[in-house]
Write a structure and sequence with these properties.
The complex is a heterodimer.
Chain A lengths: L1 H12 L15 E4 L5 E5 L2 E7 L5 E5 L2 H8 L10 H6 L13 E10 L2 E11 L4 E5 L6 H8 L7 E6 L8 H4 L3 E4 L11 H11 L4 H14 L15 H13 L5 E5 L7 H16 L3 E6 L2 H7 L2 E6 L2 E6 L1 H8 L3 E6 L12 E5 L2 E6 L2 H11 L5 E4 L2 H9 L6
Parallel strand pairs in A: 7-11, 7-12, 9-10, 10-11
Antiparallel strand pairs in A: 1-2, 2-3, 3-4, 5-6, 5-8, 12-13, 14-16, 14-17, 15-16
Chain B lengths: L11 H4 L10 H18 L1 H24 L6 E2 L2 E2 H33 L1 H6 L5 H29 L11 H22 L6 H15 L17 H11 L1 H14 L4 H29 L2
Antiparallel strand pairs in B: 1-2
Helix pairs in contact in B: 2-6, 3-4, 3-6, 4-6, 4-7, 4-10, 6-7, 6-11, 7-10, 7-11, 10-11
Classes of the chains: A alpha+beta, B mainly alpha.
The complex binds adenosine-5'-diphosphate and magnesium ion.
The site of adenosine-5'-diphosphate has 11 residues of chain A, from β6 and α4.
């Protein structure tokens, strides 16, 4: 009787269903009930689970011990999903090649606006994928969908073979994220703001403190452990956010514009740290609007604009595929000079771009239009980016 | 090269598998959130706790100590006026602390500090994040009501052994108003909008729930007379029950109405909790 009362109290706490019964949070076998809902049969403990659309989840628990077990998460026994291949016992370094993220025609609408508009891609283990796009391209929205912070309006999305939102509890356990804006608790000391995050992740105080000390030492921030966040420079804050994202030993690291607004030294430091993680086999999703960052870190980039992926490929391959080898960039020309037949000309704002595969043709042109603002260089990712997203303002 | 050039090796736990049982059950999820709030709150304790502790005491000294000198021998609902007001004010201070936490403070966390994004990027679920927050509201309510009780004792207010339950009333009150505040927050788009709620709802509750004068006639009758309507309105106000319960502790008396107050308070807690989580869910998972 007392146990029953306790179970009912638990029901009051369990909120509208965002839980798939097949979550298998309680382990055991799921038996669907003909009248709706389901029973989960765990050896030694019988747990009845009834799912209603909307209002909530009723858990009928057999005894206090069962109630306690409910709190502990038991992994599903039968390894059938890719998730188990990654996270079953002793699979820390499992070499499964199943994609970690798969997206098909993914859609997110805010009213009439399509923030993410039919995006399809796969992310394979140990890959670093860069999402490149101007502000408002939908990069952040896409990352938030992977993190179960934003629900999809259409299409398919799988992370670790599971469904975001309904299985967030299993998915997010293995994801680390560095948000675009600093959201460390600015009232706390650096180490404490990481500690609270460690507790959210389910670490105990001791493990969390140990990991924080290790991470701060790795980032050479140990002497800042006691400083308040607001006393730290932008670069230190960003490194702290990376440290925070690693506390739960993630398999997938999401970085939303990790170096925006930082000075070049700090950017290079952060890139070095991230490359170190890459070498360790970390799978990384990175959004940025710095071409150089994508070229430094990403195995593959996806150029996005207005919620759509325009291009997808390795950075150098994209440049080779879509542009000539060399570019002559000139600003403020009064007239377009004569140029060889193999030179392609583009005009944008007050700048002119001349593309060619033969350096000599551009060299000739360069002699004629030489101004302080004229440069002859290799074509790079930025040129590809501008070619596909347009030279004008997109906002 | 400056510090952090990536020369140091990765921490061992990032390289080698370590057995580490994650504590992902409901209890530990609530604990993590609760701990965060306590930690942040204590970091700025003086600035945080001064107004909510001092304000009720100002009211107490002004109203109870000041007025009661003119009310010699008068008993209010069986209590001296100072005890009458003290028992009411400890409930209302719990209300204020609960409401503040989930309106202004939660709004800042939601829209500027993005604290909830950080929490929800882990395995925490929406209901765990906000239930943890209500528990923190309750904790503050328990502490504040105890502080108000102890300080008013210095002014000569007599307590009874039952008053050890005062923090329980404080806890439930702050939990309830934490949930109510969050319902409001789920609708609010600009922080200024909260003034409608605080002056339009919370202040009237503070004055008309029986904090400073007895509103209730003693028996709930049918709402056919003015008296009956007033009684019924008072009985529907969410703060009345906390005030009456704390007063019952000060009187060390319970009757069937006390049981009704316990029931109503719990009912409000359950309904507000459920509604708040339902509302805030659509707000945070846009
Ligand atoms: N919660 C929201 N409500 C309405 N519109 C939104 C919301 N979040 C993002 N948007 C819109 O979606 C588009 C994509 O935004 P975002 O994903 O932040 O782009 P990016 O990160 O690439 O700069 C923008 O036009 C933005 O205004
Ligand atoms: Mg963004």
């Amino acid at each position: 009787m007392g146990d029953a009362a306790l179970a009912v109290f638990l029901v009051a706490v369990v909120e509208p269903v965002d839980l798939d019964v097949r979550d298998c949070l309680f382990g055991g076998e799921v038996v669907l009930h003909p009248l709706g809902g389901a029973f989960v049969v765990v050896p030694g403990v019988v747990v009845g689970v009834r799912v209603f659309r909307g209002p909530g989840l009723i858990l009928v628990v057999d005894g206090l011990a069962a109630l306690q077990r409910l709190g502990e998460v038991v992994f599903p026994r039968a390894a059938a999903t890719p998730y188990d291949a990654w996270f079953g016992k002793g699979t820390m370094n499992a070499q499964t090649q199943e994609p970690i993220v798969t997206s098909r025609d993914l859609l997110k609408c805010y009213g009439k606006l399509h923030a993410v508009d039919g995006v399809s891609f796969d992310v394979h283990p140990t890959e670093c994928v860069g999402f490149l796009g101007p502000n408002g391209a939908g990069k952040t929205t896409l990352m938030r969908m992977i993190l179960s912070l934003v629900g999809k309006s259409g299409g398919e999305l799988n992370v670790f073979g599971l469904t975001p939102m309904s299985q967030r509890k299993l998915i997010n356990r293995h994801i680390g994220v560095v948000f675009q804006d600093n959201n460390l608790d600015s009232e706390l000391a650096a180490a404490d703001s990481l500690l609270v995050h460690g507790l959210y992740c389910g670490l105990d105080h001791g493990t969390a403190r140990k990991r924080i000390a290790d991470l701060l030492a790795w980032m050479e921030l140990s002497e800042k452990a006691g400083s308040e966040i607001r006393e730290l420079s932008g670069g230190m804050v960003r490194r702290l956010m990376i440290a925070r994202a690693l506390l739960n030993q993630p398999r997938l690291l999401i970085l939303d514009e990790p170096t925006t607004g930082l000075d070049p030294q700090v950017r290079h430091v952060i890139w070095a740290l991230l490359r170190q993680l890459k070498r360790q086999g970390m799978t990384i999703l990175l959004t940025t609007h710095y071409m150089e960052e994508a070229q430094q870190l990403a195995d593959r980039v996806m150029i996005m604009d207005h919620g759509k992926v325009l291009l997808d490929g390795a950075p150098n391959a994209l440049v080779e595929r879509h542009l000539e080898r060399y570019v002559l960039q000139a600003a403020g020309l009064s007239a377009i000079p004569e140029h060889d037949g193999d030179v392609r000309h583009e005009h944008a704002g007050d700048a002119d771009f001349f593309y060619s595969n033969t350096e000599a043709s551009l060299q000739k042109l360069y002699e004629r239009v030489r101004t302080p603002f004229t440069v002859l260089r290799h074509a790079n990712l930025e040129d590809v980016f501008l070619k596909f997203t347009g030279h004008g303002l997109t906002e | 090269m400056k510090s952090g050039s990536g020369g140091a090796p990765l921490p061992e736990f990032m390289r080698v598998e370590q057995a580490c049982a994650l504590r992902t059950g409901l209890f530990w999820s609530l604990y993590g959130v609760w701990y965060r709030h306590v930690k942040v709150y204590c970091r700025t304790l003086i600035a945080n706790a001064m107004p909510p502790v001092l304000e009720p005491l100002f009211f107490f000294t002004a109203v109870a100590v000041g007025l009661s000198t003119y009310m010699r021998d008068g008993l209010f609902d069986g209590l001296p006026y100072t005890a009458f007001v003290a028992s009411g004010i400890l409930a209302s201070s719990s209300m204020f602390t609960g409401v503040f936490e989930t309106t202004y403070a939660a709004f800042v966390r939601l829209t500027w500090q993005k604290t909830y994004d950080a929490m929800l990027s882990t395995h925490l679920r929406v209901h765990e994040v906000f239930t943890g927050e209500f528990l923190f509201c309750g904790t503050k309510g328990a502490v504040f009501s105890a502080v108000v009780m102890l300080v008013t004792m210095l002014f000569g207010v007599k307590i009874t052994p039952w008053c050890v339950l005062v923090p329980v009333v404080g806890f439930a009150t702050a939990y309830l108003f934490g949930a109510i505040g969050l319902i409001v927050t789920s609708y609010v788009k600009m922080i200024n909008n909260f003034t409608f709620f605080t002056t339009g709802v919370i202040t009237p509750l503070f004055f008309f729930s029986g904090t400073f004068f007895p509103v209730f006639s003693g028996t709930l009758g049918p709402p056919t007379s003015v008296r009956g309507v007033v009684d019924l309105l008072w009985f529907v106000l969410p703060l009345s029950h906390s005030v009456e319960l704390s007063r019952a502790l000060y009187k060390a008396q319970a009757d069937w109405m006390t049981l009704a107050h316990v029931g109503m308070l719990l009912l409000y807690v359950v309904v507000a909790h459920w509604l708040a989580l339902r509302r805030i869910r659509t707000r945070v998972l846009g």
